[in-house]
TrEMBL record:
Residues 21-35 have a biased composition (Basic and acidic residues). The chain crosses the membrane at residues 61-85, 105-125, 584-606. Residues 1-55, 414-436, 542-567 are annotated as: Disordered. It holds the Pfam family DUF3176. Keywords: Membrane, Transmembrane, Transmembrane helix. This is Uncharacterized protein. InterPro entries: DUF3176 (IPR021514).
Amino acid sequence: MSRMSVSSENAEGFVQELLPLDDRASNDDTERNEDTESEEEQSRPPSIQHDRPKPSTAQKIGAYFVWELVTIVLSAGILIALVIILAARHNKPQPDWRYVSINSLISWMTTISRACILFSVSEALGQLKWVWFMQSERPIHGLRTFDEASRGPFGALGLIWALRGRHFAVLSSLAMILALGFDPFAQNLVLYHQGSIYNLTERAYTGDTSRYNAYGGPFEMDAFLVEPTLKSNVYNSLFSSDGDMPWSIPKYSCPSSNCTWDPVTSLEARMLCANITEFLVQSCHNVSETDSARLVNCTASLAQSEMQAWALLNYTKSSFHADKIRGLVAQAVEPSVALVYKNATRNAFQFIAPWEFKDFSGISVTRQVSIWEATECSFEPIVRRFQPSVRDNIYSDRTLAIWSDRALVQMNNTDDDKSTIGSISSSSSSQGGNDTEFEWQFRPPWATTPANKTFHYGLAAEKAVAKFLRILFSGYYWRNQTHEGYQPTAPDAALYASSDVLQTLDRGDLAGCRDPVSYQLSVPVKVNCSMQNVARAISKTFRDSDPLNPGNHDYPSSDYSDDSESGAGAGRVEVNVTFISVRWQWIALPVLVWVLGAVALAGAIWKTRRRGAPRWKNDPLPLLFLYQDESEDGRRGEGGERRRWVPNADLLKVKLGHT
């Protein structure tokens, strides 16, 4: 009977016996053979006796699962490092690394982590194989099942099936199978999307000013025309039908398509308007009447300002038309005559405008019919605090605060601080001296850059703008079936295009002035809208004024060279970049694989120590001793018949034990 005895560094001090169960009856013969071999070994000279070698450092390290523990810790460290890196880049721009991309880094780190964990799992499976054989007698083909499980997911599935899921090795097999999704899950960790960041190397600018005193040439004693730029912007706001309304957008510089600013404070203008239709006195009466037609005269008037509008309406049985209309009346009135804005600085502007005349057949002519609308507006300079922004190359701003309180101040140009308060007055005219020596001053409490910042609006410029608006919006426009005309009421109407302005209000297509309900260009809607457009155009002029060249004025140029008083508001430039978002749910599978691998390794170490099993793991040398050449004589008993060592591996059962 052949016998196998393992006594070398491969067995690490263990002497094992692998005995076929059908040969247990010949134990006596085996023992005699062992005694004979032992005597032969002892009879050998010392020079040829084999001393047991001392275990090497590598063997000692392997015996204590050092490499497996190192790789499991290394795998965890890589996963933790990956989480830290991704957390640092979450919702941040994609890094512009020179030699590696974020995807490549994830791939490298997960590949190394997976390799480390699979090494530990494979070694744990190999060790659990020997523990499994030490627990009880097992079919020897189980060696092959365990060996295949340590090589890949298909073998791991076979081991789970063979063990029916009732062994610690199942955890290692699950880790081996789930490791297939390690890389795909890791690649799904990162999602790319477009976003914007601030470009710190560039700046955005928008116009803002704290001083305006620009005006044109004189046309009479101590009176000036409005400056050409302001006049041009106002005309564009009234005559242009461009929906983009460029005359309302202040100058700005945005190197990209998106820019933002901190709150900006600037001198601007606004137009306040109120509906005063309730003050209109309206009436209609028959002028003539026949069996087939009637002529009705309808009037509307404001008693205090003596404004009147009228329409001569011709009714027939089958049609209706207006023979003649004094349809739009505009007039600048003194604050004392104003109905709403009695505290206006210069003038209030009153308008009587007609709605569309409709067929009044069947309505008694004695009944008052509201076919007119009256509006009163007041222009005033203000200081506005707002937050501008540019989005997709479209400028917009949001109003934060408005300050309108002001005081009339006489300046002393010889003083070093440029302007000294000589007298403060709430009146609308200077107290001695010419207009160029006075200015309106605004001191909003929230103007903190610099502290107690003062905003200046020259009196000469203010009067020029007031006269400009007074001429534009004074007069009336009439039309009939064949003719139309304009009758000015201001003494200096020839200075500006007042006729064209009122004609535009009556029949023009003004930008942004359609009725939001009916989407029609009704005259009352256009009146209100056009006045707001005028205020926007004047505000643009104020903000665009060059502080180093403010126009014709008596201030020395040094008055405008202080950037703290006027200039351009600096903003931030946004650029589009690719952002990274981390989808943390995809880290679950790599973490699960690591946990299964760590638990499997810990279990393998625990079971090995508990059973006192040899630490062979996936070492193939112990398996070599199960092989016996077919030509070897296997004599048993007196017959001396020859047989193979393992006639049928499926019928062979072994148990691993200590010698």
